[in-house]
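We give its fold:
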Amino acid sequence: MQKRTTILIDSDLLDRLDRFAARSAMTKTAVLTAAVQSYLEAHDAVPDLPFLAVGRSEHGRLSLDGRLIARREAGLRPGPDEV
């Protein structure tokens, strides 16, 4: 399902988009969709974790330690309860 949206864009960039779409025989919608998909794939990729396991332990901090390790491997900051 497609939805309509409105964006604000610099007039020079919009001119470039118009020219590119015309040269490529694509609609502006198709160009913008491809650009957004490409950007999100490059910036929103889930990191490849080397190993992650789930288990049960008598050690009360195991889940906190596991979350801390997973966040560190993903390049994320620790949460407030993991410091």
User: Anything to note?
Assistant: Helices lie at 11-24, 28-43, 62-73. The two ends are 42 Å apart (CA to CA). The chain has two domains: 11-43, 47-78. The mean pLDDT is 81.
